[in-house]
Each structure stands twice: as structure tokens, then as C-alpha cells.
Amino acid sequence: MPLVIAMDGPSGTGKSSASKGVARALGLRYLDTGAMYRAMTWWMLRNGVPVEDAAAVAARVDDPVIESGTDPVTPTIAVDGEDVSGPIRSREVTNAVSAVSAVPEVRARMVALQREIIGDGGIVAEGRDIGTVVVPDARLKVYLTASEEVRAARRARDLAADPGASVAVVRSEQARRDRLDSTRKASPLTRADDAHEIDSTELTLDEVIEAIVRLAKELQ
Ligand code: C5P
Questions:
Q1: Nearest C-alpha neighbor of 129 from the set 158, 104, 154, 156
Q2: What is the per-residue pLDDT for 149?
Q3: Pairwise CA distance, residues 177 & 60, whole Å
Q4: H/E/C letters for each residue in 39-92?
């Protein structure tokens, strides 16, 4: 089977930039599964579904049509034909996504869609449960970490346009999201036993990409 690289880890570790860089370096496709959960969350909020009500979310799970592109240079995400790549990064969506992604019906639908897109492979897929649930037999699994300080600073930079987004606020929101993502019943964030753990705290983005590309080449 063509290569599947499963990239998992908490938020703010540089997972997206590293995943895209690795995909470009190796000529692979790229899938951002977090964007899919965000797209689902954006749709729920827009349609007035109370996101803390798991039954209400589950009842609407099949309604939005979510389409995810796989080009690492210009990743796209659309809901019902509308480009939502900007709106899914809002703090409102960021703070609601853990509740929505904890709903088993949401996960079942997303995982099915993700497996369809991953197909025969040739792809870098990033998320929280790629190596454990979505593609447990992926040839290369990476679990990316970074210190809490570095992660919060990176997230604050991402949200620089938002005046309410101080490092302290982002840090506490991120801690809450990580706690929810790691303690939910349905496929919590956890490192697969056979994943290579890379701590990006002291590494540049290029160094992270190089380390993963090296691991991929060792497999060939
Ligand atoms: O990676 P990103 O920060 O965009 O992910 C947003 C949220 O989507 C995560 O906090 C998590 O709740 C959810 N997620 C997930 N499983 C994945 C990817 C993301 O539950 N595979």
C-alpha cells in the first residue's frame, strides 16, 4: 500500500505546518482532519444547534456536506459548497469544536469520510486519532509534542488578529481543549504505541520536517 503518514498530537505543536511540509517534500497528498471537525462545528453553530447537547448534535450529523481538498499547497475545506477555511479558525469554533468532536456519531461519520479520502494512501493525514483509529496500520506514525508555553505562544500568533487573544487566554482555552480531547470517551487523543514521538519545542519547522522525511525514507 502506498505510504500513509499519520500525524497526531495536541494543538499548537506545529502539526499542520509540518504535515504540509512533509507532504510537499515527498509529493504526497495532505488531509487536515481537524478542519473537518471544525467545519462540522461551524455548521452546527450556524444552524443554532446547541453544541453542548450531544443528542442535538447527533441528530444533525448527516446534514452538512463536508468536502476536504488534499493539496498540501492550497488545502481547501467547504461545507455545502461554501468555502469555510477562514471561519473555521474563529475562536468561537475553536472553543466549541471539542464538544462536537466528542460526539460518537460525529466521529463515526468523520472517520468514514476520512478513510474514503485516504483511500489507497499516498497521503499525510493529521489529527488526534489517525494512528490509533483512522489508519491503525499506517506505515509511519508520528506523535508531535511541544512544551505548553511554546504551544500557547504559537496559538496566540495564529490568533493575532483577535484582540481578546492574549497568551494567557489562549493558554487556558488550549488547556481546556486538550483536556476535553484527551479525556473524551470516543477515541481520545493518545499516542499510538508504535508512533515516533517528536518534541518540537527546540526544533525549527524545517528540522521537524527533515526528521519526518528521514523516517519516511528509512521505510523505503
Ligand atoms: O487540529 P485542530 O486544532 O484544527 O483540531 C480541532 C479539534 O478537532 C481538536 O481540538 C479536536 O477536538 C478535534 N479533532 C479530533 N480528531 C481529529 C482531529 C481533530 O477530535 N482527528
A1: 104
A2: 86
A3: 23
A4: HHHHHHHHCCCCCCCHHHHHHHCCCCCEEECCCCCCCCEEECCEECCCHHHCHH
Which three-class secondary structure state does DSSP give residue 148?
helix
Task: Report residue 160's pLDDT band, with 50, 70 and 90 as the boundaries.
Answer: low
Q: Is the Cβ atom of 38 under 6 angstroms away from ligand 1? A: yes
What DSSP character marks residue 35? H
Asked whether the predicted pLDDT for residue 164 surpasses 80, the reply is: no
Q: What percent of the chain has pLDDT over 70?
A: 96
Ligand 1, atom 4, lies closest to the CA of 34
How far, in Å, from the CA of 34 to the mean position of ligand 1? 4
What is the b/e burial string over 129-141, where b = at least 16 CB atoms within 10 angstroms of the residue's CB?
Answer: bbbbbbbeebbbb
Sign of CA dihedral 202, 204, 210, 215: positive
Here the ipTM equals 0.99
Q: Is the CB of 107 under 6 A from ligand 1?
A: no
The pLDDT mean for the chain works out to: 94
CATH topology classification for 4-209 = Rossmann fold (3.40.50)
Is 187 one of the annotated binding-site residues? no
Report which ligand 1 atom has the smallest distance to the Cα of 98: 12
User: For the chain, which residues make up each domain, given as ranges?
Assistant: 4-209
| pLDDT tens-place string over residues 9-53 | 998 899 999 999 999 999 999 999 999 999 999 999 999 999 999
Reported as type and span, the H/E element at residue 99 is helix 91-101
Classify 38 as helix, strand or coil. Answer: helix
